[in-house]
Amino acid sequence: MVDDLRRRDVFKLAGGATSLALAGTAFTQRAAAQDVRTLTIAWDTDIDTLDPAAFKSIGAYVVQANVYDSPLMWKVQPEQGKPGLFRSRPGEFDPSAAQAWSFEKDGATVVLKIRDGLTLPSGKPVTAHTVKYAFDRGLQSPGYIRLLFPVLLGVTKPEQIVVRDDKTLAIEMPAPSPMALDVLALSNNAILDPDEVKAHASEKDPWATDWLKRNVAGVGPYRLVKNEPGVEVVLEAAKNYWRPQPFFQRLVFKFVPSEADRVLLLKRRAVDIVTGRPGLSPRNVKSLEGEAGLKIFSVPDTTCHWLSMNTKKAPFDNVKVRQAINYAIPINAIIPSVLFGYGTQMKSPVPSLTPGYDDKLSPYKHDIAKAKALMSEAGVGPLPITIELAVRVGWQPHEQAAVWIQRELEQIGFKVNIVKETDATFRQVASKGGHQLSIETWQSWINDPFYHLHFNFHSKSVTTNTAFYANPELDKLIEENMRSPHGSSRLAAARRAQQILIDDAVWGFLWYDSWTRVMRADLVGVEKRWDTFERYYGMKLA
Amino acid sequence: MALALYVLRRLMSVIPTLFGVTLISFFLTYMLPGNPAQVKAGPLATPEYLAEVERQMGLDQPMWVQYGRYVGGLFRGDLGESAATGRPVLQDFTQRLPATLELTLASLILAILIGVPLGVLSAVHRDTAIDHVGRIVGVAGVAMPTFWTGLLFIYVLFYLIGIAPAPLGRLASGLTPPTAITGLYVVDSLLTGNWRTLWSSLGQLALPAATLAFSVMAPVARMVRATMLEILQSDYITAAWAAGLPRRRVIYGDALRNALIPVVTTLGVVFGFLMAGNAVVETVFAWPGIGNYAVTALMTKDSGPIQSFVLFVAVMYVIVNLIVDLLYAVVDPRTRLS
């Protein structure tokens, strides 16, 4: 009796399991039949707003860069030894919505010639007025573009953007800006349809910021057809676009919050490429090396990661202590053990790809004896000094590097407590000067030494100067060179600035990220620009 | 009539509970460190610009004004805006809540389907191999973290063997969701007779539901086992045996029916636990539910989604408890008398 019951149940269970397994085979059959003209991308970001003038999430920037054209574009060149990969070089630009550009008044005025035959999705032509609207909107609407134009270009009011005729637009700056063309390549200067935007404006919202959060109205290679947060974003090739049709007619961005899943999806070819920041941690990229059917593109990039020391707070107000820290950072262990080689040692406060960068100025290398000597010269004490090192939760390389740094700093007289904070907390504490030590990161989309120096080291850049560094000589150097023609004296000034910052050991130098993407092996036409966001327009299957 | 009055009285008692929940969810979020305006304004924001963003978000107001606005908004169905999606939180919830509900219900049903027979078998075959296996499986389910079980399922069934679909949410790529009636894809597909989406949504649901069910099956099985053991030794069962009633009828009819009373209570608790606790599983399976949404919001101190999540889970708890109490009245006639 008893046995009977048991056996029957076992059979039932076994039967159930078999039918589940059979069902499973059918579930997966669909996945294989994928259209070759569709590119499936895994990421872990939603779109917060597509308003071109607003600061936005990574996902929103990626979409913005693919649904809108800006007046100019950073030119890309084939990367040596990496067929299928293209990368921008400093100071090289391509025409885009503007088919040509020229300078007047020694570079103080930029003249844009708007592309002939360029039309909006509505069929109306794109004129100089259309492009002016994009700039006017950036200058006046909420968003951060109106903070950038005055600093970078000296453009503060719409009157400085002058329509000369239907196809000619002039940007009148008070002085030449070496960053002007870079600014014109930013995806934030999206060519919008003024009529469409105005149709969705209201008295309370004159720039239709609310409507533009989730709607796209302008010129670009793709159009947004679906945006379902937490599920997927779908872009389709735009009709009547001025360039030839792209290979990938459809881009499907799948929201995959778990990194382990992103790895398995790539390995099973359920997705073609993983994007986002970081998308995949260095450890996982390493694990995918040599995986059949996949390839890794990795090139040096301008993203800096550094140990930020609050120069206003003891003991980091002491230059000897800051120098000691720079000698104690075990960077030669962090690069292989934390970054698995997907990063390079930082040898200057400016990125290695930035004009004027000099890797010969920094004396710092891992040298505990020297660090200890500097600590005793500094005369701080009594040792050990207890300090907090703040990192952001979920920023894997930072969390891991913090442990390596902690161990070394404890050798030279510190007791280090690692504090993990959410993004919101980290930013708040940082801006109030509450961090003693923290791991910070920054990327300059405008690849110019003084752009970078201005935001990170000028005493007036209170929210971005994470070290709270103030040096009148450096401030003066930055101010003199923010808007001066790019030439040898400007490069010399950039070198002088690096020397000051290295001598003062303002940052604890960590690493420059490599821009790294893992994708199916036959994907080519991959383009990496200064803002790091892929343009899918040029991608195709080999 | 008496039942209607009972329900009404229970519903009235919900009001102060919900009021308390709004207070707690608001103040907990308020006390969280971090400034959401800073996340929204971006790294290049100047202090003046930051102040402007704070003003727009109403963060410059005193705490009690912010609370008043929050509660006032609740009455108008305005739960605020999500910083991550740029949409009203209510809209996000309308889209995501059915996903969470579907997953929770599926895992609960699965847990009952496996847990109850397992409990009965363990009790009937006390201290035999079946009982031991049941115990080991149960302990393993409780002991293994769900993200790990979930990943293990994905690794083995999707990656290695390839019988499970890609862990990419509720439907296979390229399928459009069935016409929304309940918002539960499986149910809606059945109602509209859309067999392709039914098949796909069942396939997508299988692994996450199994992962969650695995973690809560043990309490159900243990509870069934314990009460069954007690009941199997009671006089009326002995009498039933003595009367020569069929074994099946004694175990599944007389004994199990009475054993289910405490189990119903357990299920209420388990349901609440699943609702609030499946954030991890949602993340592992890219399941677009409210748990995953709330976790992301926590990182950026995005108050609208966090407060709404707490509120929704509390409301669900209240409703489930109400249902459990009502079920009690059905299962156990004694509660109706008192």
From TrEMBL, chain A:
Gene3D superfamilies per the UniProt record, alphabetical:
Dipeptide-binding Protein, Domain 3, Periplasmic binding protein-like II
Q: Name one GO biological process term.
A: peptide transport
Q: Name one GO cellular component term.
A: ATP-binding cassette (ABC) transporter complex
Please list the residue ranges annotated as the Solute-binding protein family domain: 93-460
Any idea where this protein resides?
Answer: Periplasm
Q: Which InterPro entries match?
A: Peptide/Ni-bd, SBP_5, SBP_5_dom, TAT_signal
Domain of life where this protein originates: Bacteria
- Pfam families recorded: SBP_bac_5 (PF00496)
Single Gene Ontology MF annotation: peptide transmembrane transporter activity
Report the principal subcellular site. periplasm
Keywords in alphabetical order, please.
Answer: Signal, Transport
Q: Which family does it belong to?
A: Belongs to the bacterial solute-binding protein 5 family.
Q: Which protein are we looking at?
A: ABC transporter substrate-binding protein
From TrEMBL, chain B:
Q: What Pfam families does the record point to?
A: BPD_transp_1, BPD_transp_1_N
UniProt GO MF annotations: dipeptide transmembrane transporter activity
Is Glycosyltransferase given among the entry's keywords?
A: no
One Gene Ontology CC term in the entry? plasma membrane
Q: How does it sit in the membrane?
A: Multi-pass membrane protein
Question: Has keyword Transport?
Answer: yes
Domain of life of the source: Bacteria
Q: Which CDD domains does this entry report, sorted A to Z?
A: TM_PBP2
Q: What are the entry keywords?
A: Cell membrane, Membrane, Transmembrane, Transmembrane helix, Transport
Report the transmembrane regions from the record.
Answer: 12-32, 103-124, 136-161, 205-224, 255-276, 309-331
Where the record annotates domain ABC transmembrane type-1, the positions are 97-328
Compartments in which it is found: Cell membrane
What family does this belong to?
A: Belongs to the binding-protein-dependent transport system permease family.
Name of the featured protein: ABC transporter permease
**Organism of derivation:** Vineibacter terrae
